Amino acid sequence: MARRIVFPTAEAWQFELEDFVRAISGGFLFGIPLLYTMEAWWIGSVTEPPQMLALLGVTYLIVFLLNRTDGFRQVRPDSPRQAAMDSVEALAIAVLCAVLMLILLRQITPATPLGEAIGKIVIEGMPFALGVALARSILQEETEDPSPAGPASPGPLHSLEPKKVAKELLKDIGATLVGAIIIGFSIAPTDEIPMLEAAISPPWLLAMLATSLVLSYCIVFVAGFTSQRQRRQQAGLFQRPLTETVITYLVSLLTAACMLWFFHRLGLGDPWFLWFKETLILGLPATLGGAAGRLVL
Amino acid sequence: MKPVTQTKPPRRQRPLHLSAESVTFAIASLIVAILVGLVLFIWATQSNEDPILAVNRNGDIHAEQGYYYVPFSVTNIGGGTAEAVEIVAELRRNGEVEEEGQQQIDFLSSQEEQEGVFIFENDPGQGELTLRASGYRLP
What is the count of residue pairs from A and B with beta carbons less than 8 Å apart? Predict the structure, then answer.
């Protein structure tokens, strides 16, 4: 007689999805700087298969140790068996994120030889895996529920004073600026931005724009990191999830453009489309930094 | 007396509860297994050959604003990766080098192809044009 299989409930999938969005968000926060490093692409091109296997093994071991104390799931502490399973999942998430980003940045194309593509994925996947394993601790969700009636929690929109709305708005713009600058400063002065600009066509730029917005939204409003619940409850135009995501994206793009100008990567005499393309390319890490900034600050 | 046959009630098997975690773990294991499998495949099929570079003309020569554009492609048809690949183009007329150009390509993996263009002042159609790789470094 065939054994009956009971499939997971919709609620269980919801929890799982939240864990995964948290894992992906943590991975991107850690993995993005190395993605914008041409030496990492080159090292990926020349890495031999035994080195790749060793790197995968070392990454798994580090991620396993991190998963024993940190990890990306809400449950803690992790048992060795759970940590071993989560580490496999962390590696798989890291690999998928690295593949997505390497394709988006045109570092893996149909013309890329298989060995080179796999080398790049293994090298770039490592920081992603570390980010996944640290997702819970780097941007930890607060355990205590914010009291909706408490003096600190803002009320509904109509009861909010304009001064308070403006204060929240400025606070979020400031935090976005700081986060975008911290991540963008290490990437803006490098040669990678013009290199990527040369390789990316308009459809890929659109994909990059969409990825920036989706990741920013996920980090701040889905991943269950610090103060996410408070953010959802915050009133004011700027605090509506979609509005906040779009406005902070624009702030991050402006920050990226300023950094490119400050580091003499772009001048006022350069054509507008060069400004546009390079700003969008630097905009992705700057947006992720901005999202992290709003959560941490 | 008639023997009494006791029939055991069919034992009901406990249903198999699939957790969301076990499903995602299975998918994740598959992804990692594919990655490791691909690495092993590359290891098994890679040759110990040195890089071999083939430089070819890639498309027609065309003139733009008084200069002649010569597209080319370079392919590493050998085994290993070549670093700092030098490509030289020479335009000879009557046995003498009239014009020459050089380009460097950062990395060329096995079976990888890169494209570029040399620009000449003189018409390459009026002389003898040679394109070749002049060297590379091992990474």
Answer: 97
pLDDT of residue A146: 44
Mean pLDDT by 10 residues, chain A (297 residues): 76 82 86 89 88 95 89 74 90 94 92 91 94 79 45 46 77 90 91 88 92 90 63 62 89 95 89 92 93 80
**pTM for this entry:** 0.80
Residue B104 belongs to some domain of the structure:
yes
Q: Is residue A149 part of a domain?
A: no
Using the Cβ of A24 and the Cβ atoms of chain B, whether some distance falls under 8 Å is answered with no
- Same domain, yes or no: B82 and B35: no
Per-residue confidence (pLDDT) for residue A152, from 0 to 100 = 40
pLDDT average, residue stretch B27-35? 95
CA distances from B41 to A44, A49, A123, B108 (A): 17, 9, 18, 20
Q: What is the number of other CB atoms lying within 10 angstroms of the CB of residue B46?
A: 14
Domain that holds residue B40: 17-46
Give A-chain residues touching B31 at CB under 8 angstroms. Answer: 92, 95-96
Cα–Cα distance, A273 to A199 (Å, whole number)? 14
Check whether the bond before A77 is cis (ω within 30° of 0): yes
Say yes or no for a CB contact (<8 Å) between B20 and A16. Answer: yes
Per the structure, the count of domains in chain A is: 2
Q: Domain count of chain B? A: 2
A121 and B35 within 8 Å at the Cβ level: the answer is yes
- Tell me the residues of B at the A interface, defined by beta carbons under 8 Å apart: 10, 13-21, 23-25, 27-29, 31-32, 35-36, 38-40, 42-43, 46, 81, 83, 106-107, 109-113, 139
What rounded mean pLDDT belongs to chain B? 86
Neighbours of A146 (CB within 10 A): 13
